[in-house]
Specification:
about 325 residues, alpha/beta, Rossmann fold, L-2-Hydroxyisocaproate Dehydrogenase, Chain A, domain 2, 2 domains, six-stranded parallel β-sheet, three-stranded antiparallel β-sheet, 10 helices, 14 strands, globular, binds NADPH dihydro-nicotinamide-adenine-dinucleotide phosphate
């Protein structure tokens, strides 16, 4: 058996975590021969910690062969001790009458200290994925704090993989193929309704997607459906998406850690000037992962239609950044 690795999950009593913890424990994240130590973090509220204990009882009851041990924490300084992979799910939800700036600032108060704790306590090679919204800007705040403690901002990502998976599924249904036959889908920008799901370079069974669907469908159906899928699920289920968000988080971290086998995956990573997106935000890009590292796919053509949409979502992220600029100092 391999040496166990430490996987931290914040918001561990929440609904996404209720799916995520079991996927990680069963080996979906790091493979069927990799034991894990689960570091579960929650807010220091007795009722929430009690609820988390109930989840831990259920994990115990699964008798998962790969679970080495389970820890419960309410302080990231203890919860991130030696962490190899961190799934940052817990975030402050928007309350009634809450302005976007207030939401961003409230989350800054969570993700700044978590970034600091990752740098102080986690493995120097830690890989962290921010799921909690507003995920891109939360990741920027965490990465900025972590960089002050010596981590590379490239070690902290934001999740746009759920949007990527939704785009694959919509296109597969439209073209009558399995999602496995679809490659090179891109989600550019923010995990929000300004995201740009792009099929300009996508292939369906080796053929250009653009030759199989018309532009009117892309503009009026595909893009809005992917952008607003979260709201559609809330309407149907009466609750926000949870299992699909957890599944996408598993996909993101597994591909990052174990490689994407040459496939393009969409990841929210620090902008580095690629495709004209200047540094300073965490932006969804097409990436290929190998040997535990990601690289942004380079050299793609960007037409006017795509450029306009990439700029809208970039501008939203710059506005989000401006709202919390003081937290980055
Ligand atoms: P969920 O588990 O449903 O969601 C957690 C976060 O994931 C939210 O920010 C949510 O955003 C976000 N998210 C990102 N992508 C998606 C998606 N596709 N679908 C749905 N959500 C998505 O929230 P719960 O309220 O059930 O649980 C959150 C837990 O986090 C609570 O137990 C709370 O105590 C804890 N928490 C922990 C904190 C900490 O660690 N310091 C701070 C605050 C809360 P959105 O809000 O936009 O739906």
């Amino acid at each position: 058996m391999k040496k166990p690795v430490k996987v931290a999950i914040t918001g561990a009593a929440g609904q996404i975590a209720y799916s995520l913890i079991f996927r990680v424990a069963s080996g979906s994240l790091l493979g069927p021969d990799q034991p894990v130590i689960l570091q579960l973090l929650e807010v220091p509220v007795p009722e929430v910690l009690e609820k988390l204990k109930g989840t831990v009882m259920e994990v115990d009851d699964c008798a998962f062969p790969l679970v080495h041990s389970i820890e419960i924490h309410s302080d990231p300084m203890s919860g991130f001790e030696g962490t190899d992979y961190a799934l940052l799910v817990g975030a402050r939800p928007r309350g009634p009458g809450m302005e976007r700036k207030d939401l961003l600032t409230a989350n800054g108060g969570i993700f700044g200290p978590q970034g600091k704790a990752l740098a102080a306590k986690a493995s120097k090679d830690v890989r962290a994925l921010v799921v909690g919204n507003p995920a891109n800007t939360n990741a920027l705040i965490a990465a900025t704090a972590a960089a002050k403690g010596g981590l590379d901002p490239k070690q902290i990502h934001a999740m746009v993989r759920l949007d990527h998976n939704r785009a694959v599924s919509q296109l597969a249904t439209k073209t009558g193929v399995h999602g496995n036959d679809i490659e090179k889908v891109i989600i550019w920008g923010n995990h929000s309704s300004t995201q740009y799901p792009d099929i300009s370079h996508t292939t369906v069974g080796g053929k250009a997607a653009k030759s199989l669907v018309d532009q009117a469908w892309v503009e009026k159906d595909f893009i809005p459906t992917v952008q607003q899928r979260g709201a559609a699920i809330i309407k149907a289920r009466g609750l926000s998406s949870a299992a699909s968000a957890a599944s996408a988080a598993v996909d993101h971290v597994r591909d990052w850690a174990l490689g994407s086998n040459g496939k393009w995956v969409s990841m929210g990573v620090p902008s580095d000037g690629s495709y004209g997106i200047k540094p300073g935000i965490v932006y969804g890009y097409p990436c290929i992962c190998k040997n535990g590292q990601y690289e942004i796919v380079q050299g793609l053509s960007v037409d006017e239609f795509s450029r306009a949409r990439m700029t809208v979502t970039e501008n939203e992220l710059r506005e989000e950044r401006a709202a919390i600029e003081d937290l980055l100092a």
